[in-house]
Design goal:
seven-stranded mixed β-sheet; 9 helices; 7 strands; alpha/beta; 44% helix; 231 residues
Length: 231
């Protein structure tokens, strides 16, 4: 079955992303009406990488989200558990140091990254709190986490329109662009079942992150959550 179920079995989710890897970046650009580029800029500003810092970009997919960190002079590690995504990333960005990694069992030592960031991947993890604790483990004391994830629009009228777009228009557009439409049905359902801004903030706190805050983007379609590891 191409469509991963909402119990988020890792093998099913990885297979789904393998299927859409080739045209993933193009499809996202079309489906978001170009907003994904803006969101990457907001993530970059939230992480604020400094030259020489080491950044883990988990669920980096093809590496498009990692390039801005490299351009700022940081040492970035784009990591993903979809081998299809990684293969496409190596072809597109051969100068990036890609790594195969499961968010819940990271293959990195304790306290090695100045910052960890994850964009549009946490809701695909079967146990987000376990992943968030792993992010905390590999972050240096005083380091930071930035999670960019789909969230809940703040305007009720817009929320209804957005929900209808997710379930009706998104799979149709994905089919026309050339990706696996069934995979995007799963993605739409995963967005609808995901916690709102305050709910995700609570998960970060449960995992041990401090000074947790969030910033809405595009009317709350996306929220950037930020936390720190105690010094």
């Amino acid at each position: 079955m191409n469509r991963a179920s909402l119990d988020k079995q890792p093998a099913d989710v990885a297979r789904m992303f393998d299927d859409v890897a080739k045209r993933y970046d193009l499809t996202n650009d079309v489906l978001s009406l170009g907003q994904d580029r803006r969101w990457r800029k907001v993530v970059l500003g939230s992480v604020d990488p400094q030259p020489g810092e080491t950044v883990l970009d988990i669920a980096a997919g093809t590496g498009t989200s990692s390039v801005p960190f490299k351009n700022r002079g940081a040492h970035v590690v784009p990591a993903d558990f979809s081998l299809g995504m990684l293969r496409q990333g190596v072809r597109t960005y051969p100068d990036l140091a890609f790594a195969a990694a499961d968010a819940m069992r990271l293959p990195f030592a304790d306290a090695v990254f100045d910052a960890v960031t994850m964009s549009f991947g946490l809701r695909n993890v079967s146990d987000p709190v376990v992943a968030l604790r792993e992010f905390l483990r590999v972050t240096k004391p005083g380091g930071r986490l930035v999670v960019c994830e789909f969230s809940t629009p703040t305007n009720p009228v817009f929320r209804k329109v957005y929900s209808e777009y997710l379930m009706q228009a998104l799979p149709k557009i994905a089919r026309r662009v050339g990706s696996n439409a069934e995979s995007y049905v799963y993605l739409a359902e995963s967005i609808q079942s995901w916690p709102d801004q305050a709910g995700l903030a609570g998960l970060l706190q449960d995992a041990g992150w401090s000074s947790v805050e969030w910033r809405n983007s595009s009317g709350g379609i996306v929220a950037m959550h930020r936390g720190h590891k105690a010094p």
